[in-house]
Write a structure and sequence with these properties.
By secondary structure, this protein is an alpha/beta fold. The strands form four sheets. An eight-stranded parallel barrel has the order 3-6-7-8-9-12-13-14, surrounded by eight helices. The protein has twelve helices and 14 strands. It has one domain: TIM Barrel (Alpha-Beta Barrel), CATH 3.20.20. Helix 10 packs parallel to helix 11.
Length: 305
Amino acid sequence: MLKAKQKIFQIGDIKVGGQPGELPILLIGNIFYKGMPEVTDHEKGRFDEKSVLKWIRKAEELAERTGVPHFLDVMANHPKAMEKYVMFVSDQGDVPFLVDGATPETRIASLNLIHQLGLEDIVIFNALSPRITKGELAAIHDSGVKAAILLAENEVDYTPGGRVALLKGFNEQVGLLETAKQAGISKIFVDTIVFDVPSIAYAVEAIRLVKDKLGYPSGCSPANATYEWKQRQDAILREGFAAYNASAHTMAQLSGADFLIYGPIKQARHIIPTCAMNDAIITYYARRQFGTRQLTARHPLNRIF
């Protein structure tokens, strides 16, 4: 059991956070990322709608079948493209999603459109980092968006403790938690940041520390490392990608992650069933060892076992 009182935030009809075993993990898949074959023009936002929608529906089907909630992380390199992507995703229903632009201008464009469309309550800003600009902070505040991922990237101290210190503030530097508060963010999700495969060890320990000391929903993106490592391997090791990618996400989940950004949405077919099985195991143990109660009937332990 974690020491700090665990914060649970609701985005749309999905609750995220809590003690291990209370809620299933939130999985987040990237779409429109650089290199996605279905995108034909990243500057103007042209893409094969039918093909992209196929992958979205597959993820939704798996989420419904297993009880693992699933959001989209809308990525873009240019403001015009971001606006087209947000319009496309919002047309699919009121499912929550993240906005994740490559530049401040792109992220600001997404926030302006979200405000115009009235989507503030179902959007998570990805991400608020130590390098965020004043213009972005103002745009977040003016947009009315209340949820954001905080990127715990401490360039002075890369240890798990250093990432917690970045959130709280150190060496007269204002912490990211205070910065988020000033921007009007009240629903905070902490990304403990992965640099390469070995660094997953620090990221997952930081997840535990953030939750144990501060109580905020926390997670990371192991796929940032596994995909990069995959490109440098020979054919024999690349054949095992689905297995070692799932293993990396499992390590984070067993360390208490509340959410995982698992990379390209095509991996939903591997990652959602993997994490559903893990959730059932975690909840079974928590229930019998600590008397933990599930906070939702929509849970893998109920859906697939």
